Amino acid sequence: FSFFNNNNSSIISDKSVNYSGMKGYDNFKRQLEESLPNASSDFKNWATYTAKNESRFNSNAKNPYSTAYGYFQFINGTWNNMGGGDKTNISQQFKNAQKAYNLYLDNIKNPFVQSWMNQKGYSKRAVASAMHYVGIGNILSLARTGKLSNSTGVNMNLLNADIYKEQPKSKDSKDQKLPLTHEKKLEKERMERTVKFLNQDI
């Protein structure tokens, strides 16, 4: 169930999600409407789905192992590419998320991505969320080759905080390279989580 009305058939294959009772959801919904009252229902549904999975609706969520922060867990590089600003500013989080979403939609328009989505039955929201999680380049690679693009030298800022918990904490909390012994395990977990985003099983 979605709390945002949506009559757009382009996301008809989205799985229904009931956010009722989830900690932080009511506050998130209010802040989203206040920050971007004229945003499309497609964006609002994507933002809600993505924030649930990235931060559990915690606007102050900070990944201790990377620079990821806020509702959408932007790392510094992506945040700056979307316009930057104060990461703790709620309105800025939503505005940068909207810019990111529009960028994902531009890439989703690629014919080979459209063909892949139709073949796999992936919705626009699911693919956009996967792009946010693992990066546009990785999803384009997955669509073309069936594999994520960077199979070695995995950077911690590409991975969700849930995957880091077994890793030693960085002293400076900056993005860091992983020991080689952890790469294959994390690469497998990253792929598994990406597939969950695509299948909306997360």
Keywords:
202 residues, mainly alpha, 9 helices, disordered N terminus
Determine the strand fraction and express it as a percent band.
Answer: under 5%
Overall pLDDT, averaged? 82
Helix content: 40-55%
Number of strands: 0
**Order of helical and strand elements:** HHHHHHHHH
Largest sheet: none
Q: Count of helices?
A: 9
Description:
The protein has about 200 residues and is mainly α. It is built from 9 helices and no strands. It starts with about 25 loop residues before the first helix and ends with a helix. Residues about 1-10 and about 150-175 have low confidence and may be disordered.
Write the layout of secondary structure elements.
Elements lengths: L24 H11 L5 H15 L20 H6 L8 H19 L2 H10 L3 H11 L1 H10 L15 H4 L15 H20 L3
Helix pairs in contact: 1-4, 2-6, 4-6, 6-7, 6-9
Outline of this structure?
This protein is mostly helical and 202 residues long. The chain has helices at residues 25-35, 41-55, 76-81, 90-108, 111-120, 124-134, 136-145, 161-164, 180-199. Mean pLDDT is 82; it is low at 1-12 and 151-173.
